[in-house]
Write a structure and sequence with these properties.
Layout: H1 12-22, H2 32-40, H3 45-54, H4 63-77, H5 92-108, E1 112-117, E2 123-128, E3 136-139, E4 145-148, E5 153-157, E6 165-170, E7 172-176, E8 185-188, E9 192-196, E10 200-204, E11 212-218, E12 221-225, E13 231-234, E14 238-242, E15 247-251, H6 259-262, E16 266-271, H7 272-283, E17 286-289, E18 298-302, H8 310-320, E19 323-328, E20 331-336
Parallel strand pairs: 6-8, 17-20
Antiparallel strand pairs: 1-2, 2-5, 3-4, 4-7, 5-6, 7-10, 8-9, 9-12, 10-11, 11-14, 12-13, 14-15, 16-18, 19-20
Helix pairs in contact: 4-5
Amino acid sequence: MNEMKNTDRFTEKEWVELASSLSGENNNQQTDIVRQFMSEDEESTGKKWEALRNMSDEREINVDAAWNKVHNRLKETGTFIEQKEQRVIIMRRTFLKIAAAAVILLSLGALAIYLVNTGLSGKDITLATGNYEKNVRLDLPDGSTVYLNRNSELTYPESFRKAGRSVLLKGEAFFEIAPDRNNPFTVDAGQAKVKVTGTSFNVITNNQNLAVEVFVNTGQVVLSDNAGNQNLILDPGYIGTLDSKASEKKLNTDLNYMSWKTGRLGYNGQKLGIVFRDLKRVYNLDIIADDPQILNNPWTWTSPEDNMPQDIIIQLICTSFNLSYSKDGNVYHLAKK
């Protein structure tokens, strides 16, 4: 197991200075200590901290606060005990704080990054999003780009090998894959696998019917079960679903299917029941109609901007159909006036 060469060369005070610089608290001032650390850093620590700072635009991650809250719990549970089969690598205090933040911020619904060493397979990095993050961008080592939806998790190697490019997804993500016909890209989605050489597509690992669901935007995608008994070849515009019992392929007719990523919504006579379903997916908000007849009202409307404030959308709906609403947390109750 490789370790940083300079883990014992800095004092407590110097580690605080390094953490402050890497986290951006001192605007990345390049002191002698920081320059020495970066010149000897073989683990790309600075880049990982930069990614951690930039990947959440809805909630600020306070790593130090997270570390203080979780320190005792980590000791009690033995989260960082090294084992032969699977070991967590912590680069002294800096990466220990990142891992600690991952544990507590996941429970709070905030973005987290943590590193896992899987022995012979090398180092894996996991990015996890919570309730407050969507459309979180991640650039993979091969030049591919992934956008994670809320409550999703992507595990990928620090560097891809020639034998194949593979990642593990839990939740939902949109992929833009760098072309490489000699080195296919595979998404392990739990019940199924998605294989491509260069294309863009959306993956849901567990949809409402508990099946893996793939929507192809460009190129061609192969969706198959883990046993290799079921295979779907999907072209642009098609959605494929697959579980242990059956598979289905159909043309996508939902114009708002990718609204969680684009932030734009549009309707031409769709019923409010459909609208409320989309608002749940895009904004993670629940809308309850006190009178079921409200759900049958048809709505025609197109959002004038990306990620329009949810309260404004609710007000527009209420004005259109003479409704009133009350809000309890993230739940809206709509009623007839």
